């Protein structure tokens, strides 16, 4: 039976989305009379991924004011204003965007929320000298006389080397960044009043992910994909958070909070994550993965289903225990037995160091990195309020 708190939360989200859509319609209709239309048109690309044969990249066309980077000393009232502005985005529907990589070029129209997606397949496969490939973007429509010159942006698509041993798929909330998703009031306070430089990572996670990313050799460049049900509106904050805390960058597969008319009461959380994971597995059909999440929501169930679909491609599942009830660990133990029967491993761990030790034993990270992970965990714990 679905948790009633999540049902109420999603119903509230549905109302908020409908209000936002109504506000968007009024703003577009009344914008010129209200003095609107003066903010700059921008293309916001999201990090994509692909292979030498093709790359996928999402983005959004927005009309927005420039926002100064966040600062550790920013007052909470400023963080609140930035947070509200982030959700009150001025999207540009029907915009025409041209994307180019190598000799491949495509055009795409943005949807009613300003989102667009491109798939670029060069006639000659890419020969990447670096895992991150540049994708040039240009806004063809609409044109704004008050904004001289073309509107351009550069996106990046991750193209791992064919020799990559494995990849990592990680949740974000309460796995990488502290969100307190099991406590609605604390979660709201964190999301609204903190910024990318004041929000805290889970203890030791940055050093652990750097170790996974580097491999035993130190230069493996294993890809890390971040899959979350957070809305795309949080992409700039999450991207800045990863950079600020020196956590390896990777594609962020977030969620459009639009309403599915066929499933008006569905949370869409598990469906979105499973679909994103399937997209990654389908893009790299021979690459195995390590899956990382937490016990707060549905990560163990989602990853159990992934193992059932791809039993030979999941090296291990690490679930950080953030549960506050004794029933949840017992339920995850039952899932672990199912995962083991399918040929993989699911570990419910108390902290990052425990997962790192297991990874070192399996030869997935350099054991010499364990002291660094342990020390970073200690320093991060000291910052926890």
Keyword list:
about 375 residues; 10 helices; alpha/beta; Immunoglobulin-like; 2 domains; Rossmann fold; six-stranded parallel β-sheet; eight-stranded mixed β-sheet
Count of alpha/pi helices = 10
CATH architecture of the largest domain: 3-Layer(aba) Sandwich
Name given to the CATH homologous superfamily of the largest domain: HAD superfamily/HAD-like
Under CATH, the topology of the largest domain can be stated as Rossmann fold
Mean model confidence by pLDDT:
82
Biggest sheet details: 8 strands, mixed
Overall structural class, as computed from helix and strand content, comes to alpha/beta
- Kindly provide the name of the CATH class of the largest domain: Alpha Beta
**Count of individual domains:** 2
Q: Secondary-structure element order, as H and E?
A: HEEEHEEEEEEHHEHEHEHEHEHH
N-to-C span = 34 Å
Give the helix level as a range of percent: 25-40%
Number of strands: 14
* Strand residue content: 15-25%
What is the 3D form?
A: globular
CA radius of gyration: 21 Å
Low-confidence stretches: 1-16, 30-37, 259-267
């Amino acid at each position: 039976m679905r948790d009633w708190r999540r049902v109420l939360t999603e119903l509230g989200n549905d109302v908020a989305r409908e209000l936002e859509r109504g506000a968007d319609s009024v703003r577009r209709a009344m914008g010129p009379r209200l003095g609107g239309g003066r903010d700059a048109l921008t293309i916001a690309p999201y990090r994509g991924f692909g292979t030498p044969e093709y790359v996928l990249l999402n983005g959004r066309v927005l009309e927005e004011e420039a926002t100064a980077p966040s600062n550790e000393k920013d007052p909470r009232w400023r963080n609140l204003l930035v947070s509200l502005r982030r959700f009150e985005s001025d999207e540009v529907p029907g915009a025409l965007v041209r994307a180019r990589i190598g000799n491949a070029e495509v055009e795409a129209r943005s949807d009613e929320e300003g989102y667009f997606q491109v798939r670029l397949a060069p006639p000659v496969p890419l020969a990447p000298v670096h895992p991150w490939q540049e994708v040039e973007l240009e806004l063809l429509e609409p044109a704004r006389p008050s904004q001289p010159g073309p509107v351009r942006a550069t996106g990046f698509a991750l193209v791992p080397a064919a020799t990559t041993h494995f990849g990592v798929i990680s949740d974000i909330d309460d796995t990488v960044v502290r969100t307190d998703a099991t406590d609605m009031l604390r979660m709201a306070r964190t999301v609204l009043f903190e910024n990318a430089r004041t929000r805290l990572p889970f203890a030791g996670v940055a050093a652990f992910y750097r170790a996974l990313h580097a491999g035993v050799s130190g230069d493996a460049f294993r890809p890390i994909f971040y899959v979350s049900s957070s809305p795309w509106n949080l992409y700039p904050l999450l991207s800045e958070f990863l950079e600020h805390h020196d956590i390896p960058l990777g594609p962020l597969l977030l969620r459009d909070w639009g309403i599915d008319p066929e499933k008006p009461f569905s949370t869409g959380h598990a469906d979105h994550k499973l679909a994103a994971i399937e997209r990654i597995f389908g893009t790299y059909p021979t690459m195995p993965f390590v899956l990382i999440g937490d016990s707060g929501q549905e990560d163990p169930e989602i990853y159990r289903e992934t193992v059932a679909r791809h039993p030979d491609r999941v090296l291990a599942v690490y679930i950080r225990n953030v549960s506050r009830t004794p029933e949840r660990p017992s339920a995850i133990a039952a899932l672990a037995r199912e995962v083991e029967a399918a040929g993989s491993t699911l570990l419910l761990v108390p902290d990052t160091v425990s997962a790192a030790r297991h990874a070192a034993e399996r030869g997935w990270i350099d054991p010499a990195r364990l002291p660094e992970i342990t020390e970073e965990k200690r320093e991060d714990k000291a910052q926890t309020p």
